[in-house]
Amino acid sequence: MIKRIILLASLMGLCLLPGAVLAQKNSCLECHKGLDAELKAPAEAFAQDIHQQFGLTCKDCHGGNPALDDVDKAKDKTFKGAPKRAQIPEFCARCHSDTAYMRRFNPNLRVDQLSQYATSKHGQRLKAGDTKAAVCTDCHGVHGIQTAKYPKSMTFPWNIPQTCSRCHSDAAYMKAYGIPTDQMAKYKESVHAQALFDTKDMSAPTCNSCHGNHGAFPPEVKSVASVCRQCHPSTGDLFTKSPHKKAFDDLGQSECEACHGNHKIERPTTAMLGTADKSVCLQCHDKGSKGYTAAGELRSLLDGFEKRVEANAATLEIAEKKGVEVSDPAFKLKDVNTVLISAKNLVHGLSLTEIKKKLAEGDQTLADIEKAGAAALDEAKFRRKGLIIATVLLALFGVALFFKIRSMRKAD
Amino acid sequence: MKKIAQSIFDYVDDRFKVKGLIEFSKHKKVPEHEYSFWYYFGGISLFLAGIQIATGIMLLLYYTPSIEAAHESIQFIMSQVKFGWLIRSVHSWTANILIGILFVHMFSTFFLKAYRKPRELTWITGFFLLILFMAFGFSGYLLPWNELSYAATRVGTDIAGSLPLVGKWLKTVILGGPGISQATLSRFFWFHVALLPMAAFFLMAIHVLLVQTLGMSIPIKIKDKKHKEISFFPDFIYKDALGWTLILVLIGVICVFLPWEVGKKADPFAATPLGIKPEWYFTFMFTTLKIIPGHVLFFEGEQLAILAFMIGGLIWLLAPYLDRKSARDQRSPLFTWIGIAVLLYIIVFTVLTYAVPKL
Predict the structure, then answer these.
(1) Cβ distance of B253 and A402 shorter than 8 Å
(2) Is residue A243 predicted with pLDDT exceeding 70?
(3) Which parts of chain B sit beneath pLDDT 70?
(4) What is the pLDDT of residues B248-258, one digit of tens each?
(5) Secondary structure class of B276 (helix, strand, coil)
């Protein structure tokens, strides 16, 4: 009985085998892999494509019957071939805007890309007939599409500036639109780029953080402040409560951008304040005005504290180089630095009283660090003195031994 | 005063028969010739081992062998304990200097063929003492529980784990589990302050006893030549003490200008720092394992290299029995060339580790 069951199961397996083989067959890939470079590339790149990883094949986008070897028969009436550039957003949206379909693969993936794209500058230009405007494949690739989580993906945070700049830094390509092409160069000098590229901080803003992605659009003057507030909410709150808010609104100034710039946002320093050349306050406040005086006071207040912090850091560095363990005061200095950063942030609220109150929090710790730094330098001196004394004593002992050995040799 | 000293001496002598020992030292002779410079490295090694015991005992007073407090206790020793920085720096620097001196001592013994009959056991105990002191270094390196020591221990134990047959078991035994944890630190601490010192004391006692009873070996080359002899005590000891004084000054200078660093506390979840390598005396083996191809003929490269090191070590250990010529007091150039090859190999691969870190 058991033998019969095994025999029957084997026969059924044999019958199902050709079907299974046919179901896996993909004549598109088989054929394209043997073609010239241009036609071979899609087949090779598709091996790394996210769609392939989810089990989709050529026919899911291009139609046709990959189970057949004959090219003419494989390109049956369902065959769509490659879409024209202007049709690409709709072509991708057939699946990506279908909530029920996308849920099967990734329930968390948004399905509003096409509607967002329609509101974007790229989408508007494409609708107006400009086929040079970016479409899905310009930013995501074609057959080697990867998710934004994959470090080699064109949409991975540290690859986004490069992806956007392929068009936006190309002066010839952008000539017709009359917009600058130095965004990438400026961004590279920004504090945001430093965080993204140097410290590999994935949360650092890149192009799409401020401009959006599928609905990419240059932020308007009124919306710049809201864009920055996404990451700098406390700074935004302080600014809203400050007298600057009304003044900027009255002047029609974009809030943050007026002092910090846009693509080239440098690390803010106290040099941005006060009455010296680099001060941004001078853009609006003339000499002798109330704002001019307040700017000077702000600068001297923060500068005084910052210089003390720098002097202490230098002392601790010297002590450390001389071999004295100063990690405890160095750690405390980090706390003081946090106080300084908070005080600098309070500048956006323009309250001298609040800034003074904040700096006072770090005063005692700074005094303790000053004391520890001086003690560390004294310790370094003490060690060197001790070494000299010990070396002299040991040298005397060594010389005495040497003469003793010599006298013994003579005696022999 | 003299009378008091004499009566104390008599009291001690009545009980410990010190006079006999002094008489033995006075009558014991040490040959003096063009190669006798190399005799002093044994005494220096013993002196440095003494420093390690003394400073190690002092460090035990403040060191806490727990993953929560080990790093903090070292930081406390280095910053708060009076002269703690000196004790800990002397301990760490001397550990390295001692292993360097032990290598010099071993190679000078090898090249002068001092291992030959009847000093085979002196050589064998010396060989195991070097292994023990390297184990001291390996176990002690983890104790401060900092980023570098943690990563280096991981690299080192991974190597042990790739040993054929026993690798996985050995790695688990060394670590006290599948990875570096509190169990590893407790184990390394136990090795470092209990098991290894006991074994080292035992071996050092045999080694020194053999040196004292058999005396210093005279190189084959000058064996038949006439040479001077000096008394072990005080002449040889005075000269030895001069060497100790010099090395003490050297250690003092290094410790004041380059105190041993505390480093960042180990973070088991952090990525291994780039360019991580074990202590310098393991680097020749480490670099060999790095550059050997994945497969050599039918063997896995790494396993083959480890096997080669084990066979090489065994040959080195059995040199007194394999070198038949020197056992008959004949010159044996083959073993001299083997020694040169081994020495060059160690030097080249150690230098390579630091000169070409991306090898």
Answers:
(1) no
(2) yes
(3) none
(4) 999 999 999 99
(5) coil
- Beta bridge partners, B20, equal none
- B170 within a domain of the structure (yes/no): yes
Separation of alpha carbons B275 and A70, rounded Å = 56
Using an 8 Å CB-CB cutoff, list chain B residues near A390: 252
pLDDT of residue A18 exceeding 50: no
- Closest in A328, A391, A412 to B79, CB measured: A328
The verdict on residue B6 lying in a domain is: no
Q: Do the Cβ atoms of B235 and A324 come within 8 Å? A: no
Distance CA A409, CA B30 (A): 14
* Domains of chain A and any CATH numbers: 297-386 (1.20.120)
pLDDT of residue A22: 45
Q: How many residues does chain A have?
A: 412
**Which chain B residues are closer than 8 Å to A327 by Cβ?**
75, 79, 262
Domain count, chain B: 1
Nearest to A327 among B230, B238, B262 (CB): B262
pLDDT over 70 (residue A262) = yes
User: Is A410's pLDDT higher than 80?
Assistant: no
* ipTM (interface predicted TM): 0.84
For testing contact with chain B, the best of A320, A321, A324, A325 (most B CBs within 10 A): A325
Which domain range does residue B136 map to? 37-217+228-267+279-355
- Residue B52: count other Cβ atoms within 10 Å of its Cβ: 20
Task: Give how far Cα B326 sits from Cα of A220, B223, B315, Å.
Answer: 92, 12, 16
Residue B324 lies in a domain: yes
- CATH number of B339's domain: 1.20.810.10
